[in-house]
Here is the input.
Amino acid sequence: MSSFPTQYSYLYGKPEGSALIRSCNEDFQVIEQLGFEPEGEGEHLFLYIRKTGENTDWVARQLARFCQISPRDVGYAGKKDRHAVTEQWFSVALPQHRVLNWNLFGGDTIEVLKTVRHPRKLRLGALQGNRFRLCLRDVSHPEELLARLELIKQGVPNYFGEQRFGQDGGNLQKGLELLRGERKERQRAKKGMYISAVRSWCFNHLLSQRIDQKLWDTLLIGDALMLTGSKSTFVAEVIDPETVQRLADGDVNLTGAMWGRGEPLNIADSRQWEAEQLQPWSEVLERLEHLGLRQERRSLRLQPLGLEAEAESERQWWLQFELPSGAFATSVLRELVEAKTAEQNTGE
Here is the structure.
């Protein structure tokens, strides 16, 4: 299997300026937007939790232990960054006659903000999006930052972020080993995470090539288009002025393949182009298909909503914006500045 290039293309060119992120947990704040209101009755208790410096799976395990239930009876809609202050919903299967003192759960890093009943378990993916508030410290080029903010409002490449691939690309490597038969993984969740990293790389590569070949905003015959704010898709069997204008206006977005079994949704020139870009990794694609994963599409363009920047000083800025479910804040940041962590900043 060929090596997997991960130097993805920038839409607006690589930023000259840099900034320090995540110097402390409070610098990266995430608020989950569930997209529906719990009904107030039912056998599942929804908990709105603020966590600091803890990952979602660990909190879920603590909930199971506190409630004396199986970890399978704990649900959440999405995993949140560990090195951050995040607010998100969890659910626990808990009969209504059981009343627990939630003041005794958590500690300094976990706080239950509210509870409410609902008939069904909270499932992964059942969220509308997330609202972010991020601090940029030691900003080196504030004028460039402001100029790039205006460009970013038009959209950025919807790359899967580095979190998907693990530290030093470890998840991607393990996924490849699984596909080759060189690794066994009994835990279903871990296996899914590793295979997802491989599919995500395929998408990122297609997106990067589309930018590199000046096809980022160019409609190909047969492109599968996705309505903004929706998962609804349709195929552009011809290139007509109305569809071209809708793409330019941001009403619809080009999509890229999330590889799997079945016929790709795109056709004609678009399908041929994607096949050519992924041809060196045809063996990987075949093995993904054999796993039974079905073909899906993902928008190439990510448009942050409500993007605003506020300067506390010339070198310290706060950003806030909203992203839909499945999108990565780091994909917005990479087009804005060269984001460095505290470890990178000290050369460690």
About this structure: The first strand starts at residue 18 and ends at 20. The chain has ten helices and 16 strands.
